[in-house]
């Protein structure tokens, strides 16, 4: 914690790439591992994964198109194109990208980090914040002081924005971890909490208590969030809305659409259509 760890590729796509602030494209390279510069943007392919690492400064990662998942020891945060992830200095984290993703990376100096929450999170992207993020990662040149002023506007906008985390916390208790592992392996599993308890050697009451005390939410909310995480990945991979609903455990597409819209802020069809949009 507190030392910079280089990005490393756990699951490398067919070509190595370098994400560069002066280019809005993924640039193939023959021998250099994929790495991110301090701020900038570029396109990444579906399924791209970055191993755990940390930074001495804060970091905003915005998927202007596509979806980003950020994982820390505290769980996983998912950010579709209407949200931005925030990782404070020193937090070890990894990233995975779903759909062809227009990644925008912005380093936040330590002196500005105090204005934001001290834990990883996801925030809604207002129209003003979106334009700031795009300008800060697109422009190659700024007038003296202009970059710093625009960055301060982005931080101020985030500081006034409530968290909207698609956060899936992970347990430490062995019994609860065993139960959640079963759901991770099969998010569509319809088993009630009592059945999961029997499978892992814990009572329904014990598991229910552990969900609330360790994860800060009830069983049904946690499982719904897990299913939404998987649904985002399925939709990004081209699965239909109906097939995604069935794969993730909803009894019908309508209930899936309602749950997805409530959590993500847009319908699954609109989310998937946005992933198919040609880059500008």
Automatic annotation (TrEMBL):
Residues annotated as transmembrane: none
InterPro entries for the chain: Homeodomain-like_sf, HTH_AraC, RmlC-like_jellyroll, RmlC_Cupin_sf
Keywords annotated in UniProt: Transcription, Transcription regulation
Domain HTH araC/xylS-type intervals: 177-274
PANTHER family hit by this protein: HTH-TYPE TRANSCRIPTIONAL REGULATOR NIMR (PTHR11019)
Name the record gives this protein: Helix-turn-helix transcriptional regulator
Natural source organism: Streptosporangium oxazolinicum
């Amino acid at each position: 914690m507190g030392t910079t760890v280089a990005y490393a590729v756990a699951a490398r796509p067919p070509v190595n790439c370098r994400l560069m602030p002066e280019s809005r494209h993924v640039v193939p390279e023959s021998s250099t591992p994929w790495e991110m510069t301090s701020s900038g943007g570029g396109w990444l392919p579906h399924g791209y994964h970055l191993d755990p690492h940390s930074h001495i400064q804060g970091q905003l990662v915005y998927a202007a198109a596509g979806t980003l998942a950020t994982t820390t020891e505290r769980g996983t945060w998912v950010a579709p194109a209407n949200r931005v992830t925030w990782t404070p200095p020193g937090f070890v984290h990894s990233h995975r990208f779903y759909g062809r993703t227009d990644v925008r990376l912005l380093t936040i100096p330590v002196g500005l980090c105090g204005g934001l929450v001290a834990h990883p999170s996801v925030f809604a992207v207002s129209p003003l914040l979106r334009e700031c993020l795009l300008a800060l990662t697109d422009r190659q040149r700024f007038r003296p002081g202009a970059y710093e002023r625009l960055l301060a506007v982005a931080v101020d906008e985030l500081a006034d924005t409530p968290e909207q985390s698609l956060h899936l916390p992970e347990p430490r208790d062995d019994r609860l971890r065993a139960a959640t592992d079963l759901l991770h392996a099969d998010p569509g599993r319809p088993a009630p909490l009592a059945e999961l308890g029997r499978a892992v050697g814990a009572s329904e009451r014990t598991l229910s208590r552990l969900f609330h005390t360790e994860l800060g939410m009830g069983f049904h909310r946690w499982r719904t969030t897990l299913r939404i995480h998987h649904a985002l990945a399925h939709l990004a991979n081209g699965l239909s809305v109906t097939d995604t609903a069935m794969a993730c455990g909803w009894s019908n597409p309508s209930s899936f659409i309602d749950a997805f819209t409530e959590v993500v802020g847009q319908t699954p069809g609109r989310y998937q259509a946005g992933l198919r949009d040609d880059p500008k």
